[in-house]
Amino acid sequence: MNFQKINWPNEKSFAFTIIDETDYGTTENLTSIYKLLLERKIKITKTVWLYHTRDHFTGDSLEDKSYRDFILHLNKNGVEIALHNVGSGFFSYQEKKNAMNLFKKYIGYFPKILVNHSNMDNIYWGHKRFIFPFNFFYKVFQRRQFYGDDAKSEHFWGDIVKEHIDYIPNFSFKNNFTSFFDDRMPYIINRKTKYSNYWFSTTLVKTIEDFEYFTSKEFVDLLEKKNAFVILHVCFGKLNIKEMEMLKKQIKHLSERNGWFVTVSELLDFLRQQQTQRILKYKDELILTLRWLFNR
User: Fold this and answer.
1) pLDDT over 90, % of the chain
2) pLDDT 10s digits, 213-227
3) Is the model's pLDDT at 2 over the cut of 60?
4) What's the pTM?
5) By C-alpha distance, which of 176, 186, 148 is closest to 291?
6) Residue at 195 is within a domain
């Protein structure tokens, strides 16, 4: 692939950030890793739930006073706070509207990023993620439906998302930096403009071995060589204490490199400023979808 050179701010050689899904995250199991990130001045994006879970998923929410204090501390120290839906499970339209105002009250700003969870109120999820013909086959073989963008559904909240959310991730790729697969992000998808704004891709981190590789000297050398960027999509709450200790060494090494360590929104805002074409055309979305399918 051909990569267009990006002049990163402050003569940095690459850009690195993380988006952390809030599933299974608690004050207890997250404090260690975030303490290290703050000490090493690596700014990332942390998603939250406003409400306690109402299904089988676990993890703290902003209804927990100690957890809320922890999140406010992160926010005060440069961590961007984002949404992973307003909670896990079913929430009414009014609850979701109230959640946005609560978010603003607690954090000081409305969230710019929404990461779809496993809720039926996900936005443009399931078969709606894809263009024809992939959307047709996905709907046939994957029966689960999502209704966050369906104004007739009790799960609807698309107008709230459109008003407040700038960015939603769609495809998560494996084994390489994000710009290797998607160098056009963030982008607008015309058929989704009614209830969304911009979309972007991430690089999936499922295991501690993945994280070790994506913070290794080998990988960071590649980022520098390609003048690239990576958005790691991780769930720190799934890592046990022993694995946290392994992460500390890797993050210390990473922080000593000439990278631009910013939040996801900061990176996406910067990339938007470099763009001349923001609407993703059918051909380009087709290519991106094929890359995702062959990468799975």
Assistant:
1) 83
2) 999 999 999 999 999
3) no
4) 0.96
5) 176
6) yes
Task: Read off the CATH number of the domain in which 73 is found.
Answer: 3.20.20
Residue 241 has what pLDDT?
62
Please give the tally of structural domains in the chain: 1
Which own/partner pairs from 97-104 qualify as long-range (CB within 8 Å, at least 24 positions apart)?
97/157, 97/160, 99/50, 99/51, 100/160, 100/164, 102/50, 102/62, 103/48, 103/50, 103/62
pLDDT of residue 172: 97
State both tokens at 240.
């046990």
Q: Say if 220 falls within a structural domain.
A: no
Residue 289 lies in a domain: yes
- 104 lies in some domain: yes
Q: By residue range, what is the domain housing residue 180?
A: 29-208+226-249+260-295
Nearest one of 39, 171, 59, 186 to 112, comparing CA atoms: 186
Cis before 133 (ω within 30): yes
Phi and psi (nearest 5°) for 269?
A: -60, -45
State residue 6 phi and psi, 5-degree precision. Answer: -110, 130
Backbone angles phi, psi at 268, to 5 degrees: -65, -40
- Give the residue from 157, 167, 140 showing the smallest Cα distance to 47: 167
Q: Which of 149, 219, 251 lies closest to 191, judged by CA?
A: 149
The answer, yes or no, to whether residue 1 has pLDDT greater than 50, is no
